[in-house]
Amino acid sequence: MKISLKDGSEKIYESAMTIYEIAADISEGLARMACAGEIDGEVADLRTVVDRDCQINILTFNDEKGKAVYWHTTSHVLAQAVKRLYPNAKLTIGPSIEKGFYYDFECDPFSREDLDKIEAEMKKIIKENAPLEKFTLPREEAIKFMQEKDEPYKVELIRELPLDAEISFYSQGDFVDLCAGPHLMKTGQIKAFKLISSSGAYWRGKSENQTLTRVYGISFVKKQELEEYIVYLEEIKKRDHNKLGREMGLFTTVDVIGQGLPLFLPKGTKIIQTLQRWIEDEEEKLGYMRTKTPLMAKKDLYIISDHWHHYKEGMFVLGNEEDENAEVFALRPMTCPFQYYVYKESPKSYRDLPCRYGETSTIFRNEDSGEMHGLTRVRQFTISEGHLIVRPDQIEEEFKGCLELAVRCMRTLGLEEDVTYRFSKWDPNNKSKYLGEEEDWERTQDKVREILHHLNLDFTEEEGEAAFYGPKLDIQAKNVYGKEDTMITIQLDFALAERFDMSYIDSDGSKKRPFIIHRTSIGCYERTLAWLIEKYAGNFPTWLCPEQVRVLPISEKYHDYAKKVEEKLKENSLLCTVDERSEKIGYKIRQARLDRVPYMLIVGQMEEEEGRVSVRSRYKGDEGSTDLNAFIDDISREIRIKEIRKIEVEDKEAK
């Protein structure tokens, strides 16, 4: 048989061989490093026998698919250790993920001490170096096998498999798990691992199902790599907005108010206010008309929009639905239906379009309690929501304008390198799922693609992921832990103008349906703030800081001059305070750094006599003495152009 290798070379073998044997024939070192193999692109165990002409690729830990196999096997070692220590724990699933693996168990929550015990047992299992061996069973035997082991979740999974599916298991010593694989050859191949954390989860991710205990872990082929990863984890934990935002006094949560309902404290509120004013100004420059619409509406509105049928479970409903005579309301999950009635308030001509409506909207989503986290998953949030009502010939230009605004906002915030673009298209093989004509879909998608290329944006295309009423573009961002969320969406809509009977009079006097573009400039303000906290570790660009300058008199004698400096700064719209405490100047400087204030103005006798200030900044440290007016000019320009200054000095105290 002829084996084609990744580098383009070929090997000829007279008889069948396992992937491992082929790896060893190539290089003993490669065989030692091998985690799995690929046969014509399909990942397989190293024990898999190859008996035909094909392309073989040997996967190591340096390959993403090799890592996935390595981490998947480590999750099985975790499951085996848990079953040894907690025999009554029920197994569910244990996949590899982007960074490591997890396994979900039905059992009591684990403490850190419990995880340490499990780690110790895992080390024993790894030392046993048990082979991982695959076997299959007929459906009924497989079900009986798992029933005898009292593993109800595995029984449920087997019953859901297609009738013709292969039902495979992997054994390692005294442990067996339902699994399609592939896996490492032996447990001893795992060289270094760590159980990172334990948390709650729901079976199949649904809150109405059984609560499970999820254990996260990571493993590496070298101990040094694990040690470096643990250091990395400690660093990103410091940036976690849910921790850092609270430490900085930006927001808090209170049990009696409720989960997913953050309280913004004065500093956090000032940042949100700065962002909102900036976005509203940017939108108004582009011709957006501001609206202010109700926070709730009768269910009738949502029946027209179809949200009542598709999203009712995610809405907060007010009133007795069982009483036919009662008015039932719901808090709004989005603003679009309200702005459609703003459009319909007066007749429109083709000359009136496009109509660009913008609103800083507070909206509500009934998120599951298990989904809530900090500012990224909340039940009430504020969004820069907008809808453009356009003629067909305006779609391209208006979509481009929406995207250019979003890209400009990301660039201003310093996030342009941290986001990705995902273009969701229709599935032409499943046309019945979508509204509108094929010609409209294809033409519009081609135009969106051209716009993305014109703006030099890298993007992925996801066929079949579009909403039923039009294609969309999502701007995605990841938090410090690598979890991806949507930051901004620009959505084309071929349907809702029909549902809401929206129209305009065209140049020939005929009545036409407009198209709608749903869009946001910056997305949800709460989520954007979360990303900014993590991006800058709390050291926001000066224009976003809730306190931009702190005046530090070296003693009480200079408080009057410090107050004059503060007054002059405030006259120029700078956010500043005076530290009037009877503390040494070194202590005041240290506290200002801990509070992440970008500029400190130190004032004493010389500064008062000369009308100057001594400047210390987070960017360069001691910047020397300068005229107060010159400092005001410099910082005002920095704020006006929204400059992101580079931090050139290390501030260990603020870390």
TrEMBL record:
Gene Ontology CC entries for this record: cytoplasm
The protein's enzyme class: ligase
One example GO MF annotation: threonine-tRNA ligase activity
Cofactor annotation comment: Binds 1 zinc ion per subunit.
Cofactors that this protein relies on: Zn(2+)
Record SUPFAM superfamilies: Class II aaRS ABD-related, Class II aaRS and biotin synthetases, TGS-like, ThrRS/AlaRS common domain
Gene Ontology terms describing biological process: threonyl-tRNA aminoacylation
InterPro entries: aa-tRNA-synt_IIb, aa-tRNA-synth_II, aa-tRNA-synth_II/BPL/LPL, Anticodon-bd, Anticodon-bd_dom_sf, Beta-grasp_dom_sf, TGS, TGS-like
Family per similarity comment: Belongs to the class-II aminoacyl-tRNA synthetase family.
Protein keywords: Aminoacyl-tRNA synthetase, ATP-binding, Cytoplasm, Ligase, Metal-binding, Nucleotide-binding, Protein biosynthesis, RNA-binding, tRNA-binding, Zinc
Occurrences of domain TGS (ranges): 1-60
HAMAP family named among the record's database cross-references: Thr_tRNA_synth (MF_00184)
Residues binding Zn(2+): 336, 387, 518
Cellular localisation: Cytoplasm
Stored NCBIfam families: thrS
The name this protein goes by in its record: Threonine--tRNA ligase
EC number: 6.1.1.3
Highest taxon listed in the record's lineage: Bacteria
